[in-house]
Amino acid sequence: MIFPASEKLFTGTGALPFGIYNDLINDVSTAHWDVQGTFFKKRRTSRKAWMFFGVYSPELICGIAIADAGFVANAFTYFYSFKDNVFVQDSALVPLGFASGFDPGLNSEWKLGKYRIHTQNGNMNFEYTGKYKLRIAAKNSNTGVSIVAPSKGGRPFHFTYKNVCMPVELNIEHVGKTYQVNGNYGAVDFSKGYPPRETVWNWLAFIGTTQSGKSVAVNLVKHFNNDLENILWIDGQKTPLSSAVFTMQKPFDKNNWHIATDDKLLDCILTPSGARSENVNIVLMKSIFVQAYGKITGTVLINGMRETFTATGVCEDHHALW
Predict the structure, then answer these.
(1) Domain with 21 in it: what CATH number?
(2) Beta bridge partner(s), residue 292
(3) What DSSP character marks residue 33?
(4) What pLDDT is stored for residue 319 in this prediction?
(5) C-alpha dihedral over 162, 164, 166, 172, to 10 degrees?
(6) DSSP 228-285
(7) CA–CA separation, 89 vs 85, rounded Å?
(8) Are 217 and 312 in contact (CB under 8 A)?
(9) 97 or 41: which carries more pLDDT confidence?
(10) Domain limits at 198?
(11) Number of helical H runs and strand E runs in the chain
(12) pLDDT for res 282
């Protein structure tokens, strides 16, 4: 079930009831919860916020993210060209990278060193200047979903907003070569809340086309957010998915990933072209993840009829202590 859209996350007595909400919740201030705590407030000890944008086109995959993990902020970007078999990545880690009053919404400016994200009136812009120059302009729409999910360990909730098939204009300049993508290949993940101190997930996201020419996209997570963010988009129409089973083996960048939902609506295989991995182990934070990227093939059930599809996307194995 998808609830009608809501304007605010905070109801006056607490967060919205757990569930899936149509479109974006505009006011996601967590000020009510951030000030709680004794020596350190929840703003630093347990509240996390991040913005990730992925471009999943047949020719190129790209990702850029900025995250506020309380005491530490980090950012990363990467791109992979299928045609040239070129992969480039970069990352940054900054203690206290965001001010204590940073309480972001989707329209906030996120800036960390070489990375910048800013949104206004649904127009999203992502910029990075380092090992290469990246510019992404994307247009948000009303096809997204907002999720309010339970957390653990006495933490109140976790919020996330997902949208897919967003129109994008991407431009990358790297060692004298220009890569460009134009089309409905963008996917955004804006998350904010209080995930468990130890957080584990497997994640699948892709954008593609069915055999009959329908657009198909998926956001799917296992072990996190009570399966509430498992959504299938067919020509922009949203359908909640059940829990899923991820079957994979190391090395994750060399072996296929098989993902199938318990409701039989989705069954697919990611064939990796490579992976971006990171292992952060500092005093206040540990984060180990592998994000494999590549082509995805499978079947999806639409109105009782099973269709094959091809897509481009990512699968992730993530383990954090934060």
Answers:
(1) 2.40.370.10
(2) 275, 315
(3) H
(4) 95
(5) 90
(6) TT-EEEETTEEEE---EEEE--SSTTTS-EEEEETTSSEEEEEEEEEEEEEEEEETTE
(7) 13
(8) no
(9) 97
(10) 2-321
(11) 2, 22
(12) 77
b/e map 40-71, b = 16+ CB within 10 Å: ebbbbbbbbbbbbbbbbbbebbbbbbbbbbbb
**36 near 45, Cβ under 8 Å?**
no
Distance CA 28, CA 113 (A): 25
Q: Which two tokens stand for residue 148?
A: 């309010």
What sign does the dihedral 31-32-34-35 (CA atoms) show? positive
281 contact partners, CB below 8 Å, separation of at least 6: none
SS3 42: helix
Cross-strand partners of 310: 209, 297
DSSP per-residue string spanning 132-186: SEEEEEEE--TT-EEEEE--STT---EEEEEEEEEEEEEEEEETTEEEEEEEEEE
Segment 263-294, tens digit of pLDDT: 999 999 999 999 999 887 876 778 899 999 99
How many structural domains comprise the chain?
1
Q: What is the DSSP letter of 99?
A: -
Distance between CA 231 and CA 144 in Å, rounded? Answer: 10
Nearest to 212 by CA among 306, 295, 143, 297: 306
pLDDT higher than 90, residue 151: yes
- The pTM for the full model equals 0.96
Q: What is the maximum alpha-carbon separation in the chain? A: 59
Amino acid type, 44: R
Instruction: Using a pLDDT cut of 90, give the percent of the chain over it.
Output: 92
Identify the CA nearest to 290 among candidates 272, 305, 264. 272
Encoded amino acid at 140, one letter: N
Model confidence over 62-101: pLDDT tens digits? 999 999 999 999 999 999 999 999 999 999 999 999 999 9
The answer on pLDDT for 39 being more than 70 is no
